[in-house]
Structure formats: structure tokens, C-alpha cells
Amino acid sequence: MKKETARAVQVRDASAAHGAIEAAAMELIRAIGEDPTRDGLRETPARVARSYAEMTAGYEMDPFEILGTVFEAPAGAPAGDLVIVEGIPFHALCEHHLLPFSGVATVAYVPSGRIVGLSKIPRLVDAFARRLQVQERLTAEIAETLEAALAPRGVGVMISAEHLCLAARGARQPGVQMTTEAMRGSLRTDAGHRDALARAHDRGLAARGVERG
């Protein structure tokens, strides 16, 4: 039986959302002090609506459906083997300022009889990233959903990201990276597994030209 996470499924009416976002964007342009009917801005509300629809498409995805097809672990695989998917890029919207944060995720788990296809893990990250988020919750939701769907011996998730709300406003500190982690089961207790996850995360960052702070 699936253990539902707090925000596992949120389905919206995409067409209604598009119209509402477009109207809100027009009002925002007016509030800023601009004329939404001038040439350079006439199509902007529609563009904003399409952009936000894409960046928040996670509200139309069911993470448990993404992980719905599972396979038996290979016969003879030693207990405690670690599966790691590293270098997963993502983009999300900070729910505090509606500004983007983007980065790299690394996801690991120790199978307990069930595994998923490689493509499922990046899709799971994407499903939660394309919602209004904070990085801490994003990290936890990925771990909790994988734990609920596969019942593995352990799960670990590491995320490093740069937040535009820090880089472009407020403290104005571009290049600062925030790293969060969520460890469940054996990833919490096994130092070797945690070290392997951290090394994989650093490789994934390096492959995308990012250095963990």
C-alpha cells in the first residue's frame, strides 16, 4: 500500500490556470507602472502565462504514477548495494518570492527487492521541482516518495542550488550555493553510503560546471 506524502498529488485545470495567470500578469505590469498595451508588452501576459504553466507543471504530475512501474532487483545482487543517480539538473520557483532557483540533485537508494528504471528518478525530481517550493521541502519530498513507493533499505537525496532571490535582491550575493540533504534508513546510519552519495553529488556538480560551497 502506498504511503502518501503531504503533497503527492495536486491536479489543476491547466486552461483555467493559464487564463488566471495571464490576467494577473497584466495587473502586475500595470502595478509596476507600465502600460501592458504598448508594443513591447502587448504579448507579455500570454508569455508569462505559458512560462508559469511550464514552470509549475508539477501540479499536473502524480509522483507515485511516475514510480508506478517497478522491477524485481537482479537475482544474486548482494544486500546493501547502492543505486545512485547523479547530476540531475532542475529548475524550481521559490514560494517566498516567485523567483527561480536552480541546481543539481543526486538521488540514491538501497533496494530491498524492488528497483525502478533510470529515467524515473529525474522525472520524480522534476515533478516536485515544478511546483512552488523551498529547497528543504523539495529534498524531503523526493526522499519520502521514493521510500514510500519502493520500501528500500535506505534513501538519500542531496541538492545544491543557487537562488535568484539571494543573488538578485536582498543580500545580492550571486554564486552562493545552498546544499540540503535528506537521509532515510541505512543512508542515515551507514557512513560509507553517505560518503558515496557525497562523492557522487560532487561529481554531478563538477560535470555541470558547479562547485559545491
Per CATH, which architecture of the largest domain?
Answer: 2-Layer Sandwich
Number of domains: 2
Helix content: 40-55%
| N→C terminal distance | 40 Å
Largest sheet: 5 strands, mixed
Low-confidence stretches: 1-8
- Number of beta strands: 7
- Give the class-level CATH name of the largest domain: Alpha Beta
CATH topology of the largest domain: GTP Cyclohydrolase I, domain 2
Task: Describe what this molecule looks like in 3D.
- By secondary structure, the protein is of the alpha+beta class.
- The chain folds into two domains: 14-55, Orthogonal Bundle (GTP Cyclohydrolase I, Chain A, domain 1); 62-207, 2-Layer Sandwich (GTP Cyclohydrolase I, domain 2), CATH 3.30.1130.10.
- The protein has eight helices and seven strands; from the N terminus they run αααββββαβαβαβαα.
- It has helices at residues 14-32, 44-55, 63-66, 120-129, 135-150, 164-167, 186-189, 191-207; strands at 70-72, 83-94, 100-110, 114-116, 132-133, 154-163, 178-185.
- A five-stranded mixed sheet has the order 5-2-3-6-7. A two-stranded antiparallel ribbon has the order 1-4.
- A hairpin with a 5-residue loop joins β2 (83-94) and β3 (100-110).
- The radius of gyration is 19 Å and the shape is elongated.
Question: Would you kindly provide a brief summary of this structure?
Answer:
This protein is α+β, with helices and mostly antiparallel strands and 213 residues long. Helix content is 40%, strand content 23%.
